[in-house]
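Reminder to self: tokens first, then the designed residues, so the page reads top to bottom the way the pipeline ran.
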């Protein structure tokens, strides 16, 4: 049995390895879950008997919110929506911070693998939002950006919930995959504090709203190729 537990531990490590591609990670997770079902082993039991726990490499990344990473001395509401959505989608904690060079920034905190994805995704959505909103004139531009960010946040929240359901249904006996994620989130909150989310009502003018949501629908959520890079600050 000790050999089985060791094999499961290695497979779980492979499943969370940023250097592997998404297919390899998913295959390793399925193999680990299959063994855990066969031998009636769950994550807590595995850690208790082996004395080994999943190790997370907690990191932070600070990303400017200004267009083309230019200094921005205020907190755009649409960037707040984007930050919350990206953080929720990538299992990271998102918060506003001040930076001497870039001024207002979004800070993501979490495991190194998740941070890599959050940094890439937030920058992509930030740059896409600024570029697309240039087609809307005057005061309707901010409405466009807010609608764009809110729709993206809605989509990311839905996709995150669907992922949880898929994980739960994939292993009906032990719920291994979902347990791994839930344990990671609990450890993340212990490291950085719980995510703070403010419910803010937003009124929209008609012009720009439809265009903003349409721009959000064009975005594809693709995971970048994994690497061993350890980002600290990205422009």
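Designed residues (235 positions):
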């Amino acid at each position: 049995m000790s050999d089985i537990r060791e094999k499961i531990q290695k497979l779980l490590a492979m499943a969370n390895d940023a250097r592997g591609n998404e297919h390899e990670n998913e295959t390793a997770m399925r193999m680990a879950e299959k063994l855990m079902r066969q031998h009636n082993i769950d994550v807590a039991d595995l850690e208790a008997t082996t004395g080994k726990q999943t190790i997370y490499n907690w990191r932070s990344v600070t990303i400017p919110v200004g267009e083309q990473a230019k200094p921005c001395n205020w907190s755009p509401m649409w960037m707040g929506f984007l930050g919350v959505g990206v953080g929720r989608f990538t299992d990271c904690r998102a918060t506003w911070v001040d930076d001497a060079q870039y001024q207002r920034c979004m800070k993501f905190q979490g495991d190194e693998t998740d941070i890599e994805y959050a940094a890439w995704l937030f920058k992509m959505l930030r740059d896409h939002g600024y570029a697309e909103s240039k087609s809307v004139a005057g005061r309707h531009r901010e409405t466009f950006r807010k609608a764009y960010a809110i729709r993206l946040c809605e989509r990311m929240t839905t996709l995150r919930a669907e992922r949880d359901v898929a994980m739960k249904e994939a292993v009906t006996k032990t719920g291994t995959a979902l347990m791994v994620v839930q344990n990671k989130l609990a450890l993340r909150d212990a490291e950085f504090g719980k995510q703070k989310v403010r419910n803010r009502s937003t009124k929209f003018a008609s012009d720009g709203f439809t265009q903003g949501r349409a721009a959000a629908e064009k975005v594809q959520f693709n995971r970048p190729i994994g690497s061993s890079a350890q980002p600290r600050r990205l422009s």
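The first helix runs from residue 2 to 15.
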